[in-house]
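tool_call predict_complex ligand=MRU
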Amino acid sequence: MKVDGKDMRPIWVDAASEMVQVIDQRFLPHKLIIKSLNSVDDTIHAIKEMVVRGAPLIGAAGALGVYISLVQENNKGADNDYLISECRRLKDARPTAMNLFWGVDRVLSVALTHENYGARVKAALDEAFKIVEEEAVNCQKIGEYGLPIIEEISKRKKGEPVNILTHCNAGWLACIEYGTAMAPMYTAVDNHIDIHVWVDETRPLNQGSRLTAWELGKHGVRHTVITDNAGGHIMQHGMVDIVIVGTDRTTRAGDVANKIGTYLKALAAKDNNIPFYVALPSSTFDWDITDGIANIPIEERDPDEIRYIQGLCNGKVEKVLVPPETSNAANHAFDVTPARLVTGFITERGVCRATESDIMSLFPDKKSGKKTG
Ligand code: MRU
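tool_result ok
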């Protein structure tokens, strides 16, 4: 996507140095800082501390992390045990998003088919690049399949703006290009459909007010930042036509893990008869599980992310303490929205209802390894 006229992605490999580089998302929208990932430790730190974040992006970072593990240790790169243990460490960086395990395992399995060190490095890099490019195309297709849903509302409203509510950041910063939830919005705007986006600020790290608002602004999309608690009120007053969110892991039966607060939006949407769509590439489905509440691990992050809030102060990005110094805080980073609250999924293969049979008929080739609840 373009930032001030320049093509940008949140992750890339620098052609001259062959180093993996990323946008450090912790400082957006106030500072655009680029960071190199020089080692597996750097990559794990970037994923854990959310230098890079968003399910498809951490899948891509994990995939490139396998390549990084091979170049950082050229004396150990041909050693299978070393490679497998570095991949284990990468996959342990965050627990909820499916894409991280999917991306790491996919590159690992290709790398292990080569015994020769040079061939192994090349195969790992080629596979990681393939993942990056495939995910970019998947997001573009999500945009194309999501377009008719927005178009239909626009026609019904006779061209009046379609009001879309979104939570967290499921745009190109969280993916490679376009985004998941935001891909249909960008495609609608590019097709001259008038839209307006309600952007949940998404406490505690404000991926909505910092990242989604920044992305939309750079693309010239009309948007308004709201508090996380405002959704129910604006839905009751006819100010939301559709909710579109992304997901970090979705079960084969359609339960959706996404940023904390998503479940409440889905409940409010159901109560107000507002369609609630989830946009995702197939890499985000967990084909092994059906019951998301019982089986999706929910990350608990540092309580200081709740206690301190970050913003721009006198030209510097600063953090300030909000609650009393002695108060405890708990930071549950994701929640699970049951399939019964989801109107449909927008995927790279089309749109389907949130039932196991509809999902599996869109993805008949995806097999469950093991079956748990
Ligand atoms: O903690 P984050 O910022 O990595 O969480 C990201 C989300 O919850 C997104 O909604 C999700 O990854 C959507 S897919 C682009």
